From TrEMBL:
Key words, A-Z: Hydrolase, Metal-binding
Record has Metal-binding as a keyword: yes
Stated name of the protein: LuxR family transcriptional regulator
Record-linked SUPFAM superfamilies: Metallo-dependent hydrolases
Residues noted as binding a divalent metal cation 2 in the record, renumbered to the chain: 128, 154
């Protein structure tokens, strides 16, 4: 049993054959999918996929790349978008200083707005951070001081020090196919020390296909390859890791998933 805790089923590369992609993943033992949104214009379609497929859930949110185009997005707009039983999380939101596609101050403001809605609704926030570890950690620390909120770092690529900081703040960490890459030794070592109750696994499909699928569009079925690699790192079995990460997913998203499945 495996959950792909982060995929983009409505993105080019998957949307054209979405039914086939889901069928292949289910045959590989994937029993749930969290379909992630990155901009307001795609919320409807992302949620519609979750409404159509009982093992697919959705998030609503603004990716940091899209921050400038959503600088005036009000908190009420995001809050209203969560009023759907298939929406179980917020995001992805956060900070990306690698490409700087949006003004950093705007990214930070939207990130804090997402955190506020996560705190208010109890919906977990899916966080993207790239080359922005210090500011991400500072904002998370400051916002946690205002009141707890559920959150996870998706597609973890940061330093072990950043990882330990967010774990201390109570966040969960999700590993993608990047952990299988030859140059990901630091992530591989950190993967061994993530507490059992704070670990998730994802594809971020259609991006970041794990070994041995490099060069191909990533699919949710490939979460098994990543899980097998992580299981070897942590000296366990893929079956045990699958159960562990699935249990963690349902624990983190428990309230919303329970409502969406009712």
């Amino acid at each position: 049993m495996l959950i792909d805790s982060h995929c983009h089923l409505n993105y080019e590369g998957l949307i054209e054959r979405q039914t086939e992609v889901l069928s292949t993943a289910r045959a590989a033992g994937v029993t749930g999918f969290l379909n992630i949104s990155t901009r307001e214009s795609e919320w409807h379609d992302v949620v519609a996929t979750a409404e159509r497929e009982p093992d697919v859930w959705a998030t609503v949110g603004i990716h940091p790349h899209e921050a400038d185009q959503h600088a005036d997005l009000g908190r009420e707009v995001l809050l209203r978008a969560t009023d759907n039983s298939r929406v179980v999380g917020l995001g992805e939101s956060g900070l990306d200083y690698h490409y700087d596609k949006s003004d950093r101050a705007v990214q930070q403001d939207l990130f804090r707005m997402h955190i506020g809605v996560a705190r208010e609704t109890g919906l977990p926030l899916v966080i993207h951070t790239r080359d922005a570890g210090d500011d991400t950690a500072q904002i998370l620390s400051e916002e946690t001081g205002k009141g707890a909120f559920p959150a996870l770092i998706h597609c973890f690529t940061a330093s072990p020090e950043f990882g330990r900081t967010v774990l201390e703040l109570g966040l969960t960490i999700s590993l993608s196919g990047i952990v299988t890459f030859k140059n990901a030794k630091q992530i591989q070592e950190f993967a061994k020390e993530i507490p059992e109750d704070r670990l998730l696994v994802e594809t971020d499909s259609p991006f970041l296909a794990p070994v041995p699928h490099r060069g191909k569009p990533c699919e949710p079925a490939f979460v098994r390859d990543t899980a097998e690699f992580i299981a070897d790192l942590r000296a366990t079995t893929v079956a045990d890791l699958g159960k562990l990460t699935s249990d963690n997913f349902f624990r983190l998203f428990n309230k919303a998933v329970t409502q969406a499945s009712a």
